[in-house]
Each structure stands twice: as structure tokens, then as C-alpha cells.
Design brief:
This protein is an alpha+beta fold and about 100 residues long. Helix content is about 50%, strand content about 20%. Strands 1, 2, 3 and 4 form a 4-stranded antiparallel beta sheet that branches. Strand 3 (about 85) and strand 4 (about 90-95) form a beta hairpin. The longest helix has 21 residues, at about 15-35. The protein is rod-shaped. The two termini are about 50 Å apart. The relative contact order is 0.15.
Length: about 100
Amino acid sequence: MLTAIVGLSLRYKLLVIVAFAIVVFLGVRAFQQVPVDALPDVTPVQVNVYTESPGLAAEDVETLLTVPIETGHGRPAGCRAGPLGVAVWAVQCQRLFH
């Protein structure tokens, strides 16, 4: 089978060259028509809340900032909690929506 294809390709060289040119032309045209955003953004929609409260102790930051932010966000449908970072006087709260 492969021998027959190679034999026909050698016999009809002009036809092979024309077919190759058509395939190249169609490939270049398809490449030019691909929209820029052909690759979707795969990062989830997220909400980040950063708060700072210099001068408060870690317990006060937890009581006055972290707990109200966590409870205020709640858990909407399709939402999961991201990493919660608590420093001495700062809070980072993240929600990821899918």
C-alpha cells in the first residue's frame, strides 16, 4: 500500500506539489483567522479581601477582622474558601467561584 502511494506520488509530482500548496494556503488562512482569545482563561473568578489593622494583637485581629469577614462572605453557591492568611495585624481572605 505504501509502495503504491510513493509510486503515484513520484509519477504525479505536479499534483503532489499543487496539493501541498493548497494545504499550506488553507493552514496559513486558518491561522490568520484564529481569534486572539482562542485559549480560555482557566483561572477561577476570585474575590480577595486584604485588611490591615496596625496596633492590634493577634487575638483582636481574629475577633474584629477575620471572623466578621469570614461570616460576611458566607458560602454562595459554587464558592469555596481559599487560603486564609492572618499575620500579626493583617488579614487576607480569598473566595474562589467556579
